[in-house]
Design brief:
The chain has helices spanning 5-14, 25-171, 176-181, 196-200, 207-218, 222-231, 241-264, 266-274. 81% of the residues lie in helices and 0% in strands. The chain is rod-shaped. It folds into 2 domains: 5-77; 152-274, no CATH class. Helix 1 runs antiparallel to helix 2 and helix 2 crosses helix 6. It has 275 residues and is an all-alpha fold. Residues 36-77, 106-133 form a coiled coil. Residues 200-221, 235-275 are annotated as: Disordered. Keywords: Coiled coil.
C-alpha cells in the first residue's frame, strides 16, 4: 500500500483534539478515543508505508547487487577477453616466428640436400672414373700376364732349341777355330745379362709360375739342368747374341773337359779294364 506521508501528517494535525471547558467528560473521552483511533490508524498506515519502503529499499538493494554483479561479471569477461586477445596476439606472433623459422629450416634443408646431391653426383662421377681406371688396369694386367706367359713359352722354346743345339755340338768333333766361329741360332731371342743372383732368384709373372719352374728344374737330370743353365734365359729377354753364344761355348768346353777328365781318371781306366 502506497500512502502519502504528508497527507497522513495533515490528517493527524487536522484531527488534533480541540478541548473545550464546556464539553463534558464523556464527550471529551469520546473525542480523545476518536483521536487515538485516528492516531493508531495513522501509525498503522505509517508502519505499512515503512514496510513498503523497506521492501522497496530491499528490492532496490537487490537490483543494485544484481547490477553490481552484472557489472563485475562484465568487467571480468572484458578482462578475460583482453587477456585472451593478448594471448592470441602473442600466439600469433609465436606462430609467425615459428613459420619463419620453419621456412628458414626448410631452406637450409633444401640447401643441404642440394649439397648432398652434388656430393653424391661427384662421388658417382669419381666412382665411374675409378671404375674406368680399374678396368684399364685390369686390361693392362691381363695384357702383362699374357705377355709374360708368352715370354715364358718363348723361353721354354728357346731352352729346348739351345739344348738340342748343345747336344748336337757335343756330338760333333770340332776344332777351336770352329768353336770360335760357332754362333747360336739367329732365329731365336737369346736372353742375356744373366748373373748368379738371377739364376738363384728367378723373376716370374707369379709365385705359381716360379714354383712350377722350380719343380720342373728340380726334376731335371744333371745334363738337362746344365743345358738349362747354359741357355741363360731365366730372367732377361734382351741382349747380345754373341755374348750368349760365348757363354754357351764356354759351358760346352767345360763339359767336354770334365768328360775327358773322367775318361782319363784311374777309376775310369779300372772300370774300363775290368769292364
Amino acid at each position: 500500500m502506497d500512502l502519502d506521508l504528508a497527507e497522513i501528517i495533515d490528517d493527524g494535525e487536522s484531527g488534533a483534539p480541540d478541548y473545550d471547558v464546556d464539553d463534558d467528560y464523556e464527550r471529551q473521552y469520546l473525542r480523545v478515543q476518536h483521536d487515538f483511533d485516528k492516531l493508531t490508524t495513522n501509525y498503522r498506515r505509517l508502519q505499512t508505508v515503512n514496510e513498503a519502503l523497506k521492501r522497496q529499499i530491499e528490492q532496490q538493494h537487490t537490483q543494485l547487487a544484481e547490477y553490481l554483479k552484472a557489472k563485475n561479471d562484465a568487467e571480468r569477461v572484458a578482462h578475460e577477453s583482453e587477456l585472451r586477445m593478448a594471448k592470441m596476439a602473442k600466439n600469433a606472433e609465436i606462430d609467425a616466428r615459428a613459420r619463419e623459422g620453419q621456412v628458414k629450416r626448410v631452406r637450409v634443408m633444401e640447401h643441404q640436400m642440394k649439397e648432398v646431391l652434388e656430393e653424391s653426383d661427384k662421388e658417382r662421377r669419381q666412382r665411374a672414373v675409378a671404375e674406368e681406371k680399374t678396368a684399364e688396369l685390369h686390361k693392362a694386367l691381363n695384357r702383362e700376364r699374357a705377355q709374360r706367359l708368352h715370354d715364358l713359352h718363348q723361353n721354354f722354346r728357346i731352352a729346348g732349341t739351345l739344348s738340342s743345339s748343345y747336344a748336337k755340338w757335343d756330338a760333333m768333333d770340332v776344332s777351336d777355330d770352329e768353336e770360335q766361329r760357332w754362333q747360336p741360332p739367329r732365329d731365336i731371342d737369346v736372353p742375356l745379362n744373366i748373373t748368379d743372383d738371377d739364376l738363384a732368384t728367378p723373376q716370374f709373372a707369379s709365385p705359381e709360375d716360379a714354383a712350377q719352374e722350380a719343380a720342373r728344374v728340380k726334376a731335371m737330370s744333371d745334363g738337362d739342368r746344365a743345358n738349362w743353365r747354359a741357355a741363360g734365359w731365366l730372367h732377361s729377354r734382351a741382349g747380345d747374341a754373341d755374348e750368349a753364344g760365348e757363354c754357351a761355348r764356354r759351358s760346352a768346353v767345360q763339359r767336354r773337359a770334365e768328360k775327358s777328365r773322367l775318361q782319363t781318371s784311374p777309376a775310369r781306366s779300372n772300370r774300363s779294364r775290368f769292364g
